[in-house]
Amino acid sequence: MPAVSKGDGMRGLAVFISDIRNCKSKEAEIKRINKELANIRSKFKGDKALDGYSKKKYVCKLLFIFLLGHDIDFGHMEAVNLLSSNKYTEKQIGYLFISVLVNSNSELIRLINNAIKNDLASRNPTFMCLALHCIANVGSREMGEAFAADIPRILVAGDSMDSVKQSAALCLLRLYKASPDLVPMGEWTARVVHLLNDQHMGVVTAAVSLITCLCKKNPDDFKTCVSLAVSRLSRIVSSASTDLQDYTYYFVPAPWLSVKLLRLLQCYPPPEDAAVKGRLVECLETVLNKAQEPPKSKKVQHSNAKNAILFETISLIIHYDSEPNLLVRACNQLGQFLQHRETNLRYLALESMCTLASSEFSHEAVKTHIDTVINALKTERDVSVRQRAADLLYAMCDRSNAKQIVSEMLRYLETADYAIREEIVLKVAILAEKYAVDYSWYVDTILNLIRIAGDYVSEEVWYRVLQIVTNRDDVQGYAAKTVFEALQAPACHENMVKVGGYILGEFGNLIAGDPRSSPPVQFSLLHSKFHLCSVATRALLLSTYIKFINLFPETKATIQGVLRAGSQLRNADVELQQRAVEYLTLSSVASTDVLATVLEEMPPFPERESSILAKLKRKKGPGAGSALDDSRRDPSSHDINGGVEPTPSTVSTPSPSADLLGLRAAPPPAAPPAPSGAGNLLVDVFSDSPAAQPGLGPSPEEAFLSELEPPAPESPMALLADPAPAADAGPEDIGPPIPEADELLNKFVCRNNGVLFENQLLQIGVKSEFRQNLGRMYLFYGNKTSVQFQNFSPTVVHPGDLQTHILSAWPSPAPPGSTPMIPVPRPVTWPLRALHSLR
Amino acid sequence: MIKFFLMVNKQGQTRLSKYYEHVEINKRTLLETEVIKSCLSRSNEQCSFIEYKDFKLIYRQYAALFIVVGVNDTENEMAIYEFIHNFVEVLDDYFSRVSELDVSFFSAVSQVFHTSWQRTG
């Protein structure tokens, strides 16, 4: 029979346990347990007082029964009684019981706290340790409230024993983690830092854990720990193997303590003091050197411990990111590990290298290992190692190796786990866009992505490719041709149909000359997929058909026939039905000019941050920032608008003729102003007004602007393409063209928004919305000069009885800052009938 | 930070479990079965670190017993890996050639565990 407890007998318990183990069935076990419970109950209620040994025995039995899974509802009082005994074993069992079976009876808690207080105040280190362990194990808020003030005192008291200091440090750590507000910083913090100099390694270890946690919230209080930690670390690292007897693990001195010290140093920036810094660098170099020496022992534990320190050292070097030669050495060391026999080391090396890749000093060194990494991607058996290799390829990608890396990742995608496919798709899309010199390569890559992993290609990805194709004239023809060929494949993913439908609708005319892709062929190709698609795709295809009617009049009859078919006109889905009806009517009623205007090619999209990057960041969570944030090293521009470097969108120099608020003619595309709403309108010109862009410019004013301004069109006729009046969108917006009026006011007959007044200094815009009997009007004041307006106070004069009907008018704040473009919203709410007099 | 420490045998019975963050009782069994399933399906050539939900599992196999430690990403994996071994060595010393049966008796093991945990932090 195996040994039961720490050698103090309790034979009764041993007998009980062996009885339980010998029970043949569950029922027998329960019977035996119930018998024992009854016995214990009677003993506890009995007249004669139990002696310490019996109490201990019964309480221990109760604990065992509890751990078997049965509920215990008595015995707490006896356990608490045991706490006040003077014998260690009895106390121990008492504490064990109450740590495991936490009771919320307040009377008992009071007694328990009393007992703990007594033990803490006693001079006996074993008792103090028991009490501290109990506090740490329970760690409840009540305990924290009772003891949080006492423990720091015990920790730094000069006469506390080492074991007590250790327990106190860890107990304080536990309480701090559970309820940080209960542990006040005080003068004890300086003394805690000095514990790092203690002789006893255990105390140092415990102190390091405590300081690491505390300094996250209060870094300044513990700043002095850095130099102490450095000196401690260098002493350990340079110690011979005969020092630190107890703390040497397979010839490695204090590995866990070293790791902890290195981790503590990662909470602070590199030390400013030259001496400390020099010592630290020396120490790090020693660790790196030791890694190259032959091992002192053949055992795997020795090398594991050594490598643990090595990896933590490399983390620290990466964190500091200021010593180029250390970084390069670290990179080389990791490079050696990449081909190590042990899978663990390869995994850790790939992971560390990922963070190294984003540092500018070591980026080049990392790139030299690209072949090894690609090999790992192909040949590793372990999926988590392959995934790390893929992450590393993403991190080390730049212009020189982009094509190679993207093709490798595409190949990997074909056999990748389903769980990680979406992430890889996003990464490939980002890389392809960022490093594309030749945009036809980019189009190919994205179409390949859709072909290989169509289900995992999210909307952001194919929106992006459409944006890019629309913006770049040179790639439109190529895109049309490629998409046409891709659609001819027998099993074609729905996303491909969406992309293909849109591109052919816009640019199908570019390939119409070739007899193989003549208009009727294009139409029949798309229509053959029509019935296989979901509602959203079909809606997109209907829009493509009407664009075909415009581009290729010879197909008009066929397409009208399709639209007229009962399956469209009486389709169960409202969107499809509406589109079919409207397009059919449009094609029959409108003249060719009108049709051409309405269905004109989409204008180029303005610059903005790729939503794919935002999506990837969301997916990976906040921790992935380092690998993705390459703003430091590679300020590659988005070469979207014909290779023009985009100006940062916060400042744009206004020219007198430029429309600040973008409410009239086009600003030149090289100076991208505030974003427009057209970005969302990839699918359909006629869809509803887009909501304000999420995750773009944070200011609410931009949200207004996005609703105000149309996409930057060249011709005045494009006012019709404005997708975003605040009122409902619908066919009535596409009325007969309005000539560009000199009188700005006239346009408010049909529109709710627009420029009201403009001169050299000021532009005033209006946006109004109406609902039932209430109207709300916003006035925007744009500062066209490059100086700030001082004492700007707008006054609104209301005619006659309009004044009495104004429900609320908010004063405008003074125009802030020197940015010449801040509008000042001034909402005024009127009841509707009063507004009739406004004209 | 260590989230939990488990000793589970191949049949899925948990011999020792210690959670350092609050996890509800019914969720614990689920967690343990899932963890042991992912550990069992690994071969020798695969590395000992698994990514599971939002933390990492570091496991080591000793005969029929798996020792699994769940950590978040602030921990050094190699150090934890060796810690597991150190812990087993201490148990070995204490019980003189420890076996799974010894581990089933909680009190001694948990005492040893707490103490060795302190020493190595």
TrEMBL record, chain A:
It is a peripheral membrane protein. Keywords: Coated pit, Endocytosis, Membrane, Protein transport, Transport. Residues 615-712 are annotated as: Disordered. Residues 746-836 form the Clathrin adaptor alpha/beta/gamma-adaptin appendage Ig-like subdomain domain. Residues 646-657, 698-712 have a biased composition (Low complexity). Signal peptide: none annotated. It is found in: Membrane, Coated pit. SUPFAM superfamilies: ARM repeat, Clathrin adaptor appendage domain. The keyword DNA-binding does not apply. It comes from the Eukaryota. InterPro entries: Adaptor_Complx_Large_Subunit (IPR050840), AP2_complex_asu (IPR017104), ARM-like (IPR011989), ARM-type_fold (IPR016024), Clathrin/coatomer_adapt-like_N (IPR002553), Clathrin_a/b/g-adaptin_app_Ig (IPR008152), Clathrin_app_Ig-like_sf (IPR013041). Residues 666-675 have a biased composition (Pro residues). Belongs to the adaptor complexes large subunit family. This is AP-2 complex subunit alpha-1 isoform X1.
From TrEMBL, chain B:
The keyword Transport applies. It is a peripheral membrane protein. Keywords: Membrane, Protein transport, Transport. InterPro entries: AP_complex_ssu (IPR016635), AP_mu_sigma_su (IPR022775), Longin-like_dom_sf (IPR011012). Pfam families: Clat_adaptor_s. It comes from the Eukaryota. It is found in: Endomembrane system. The keyword Methyltransferase does not apply. Its main location: membrane. Residues 1-105 form the AP complex mu/sigma subunit domain. Belongs to the adaptor complexes small subunit family. This is AP complex subunit sigma. It comes from Odocoileus virginianus (White-tailed deer).
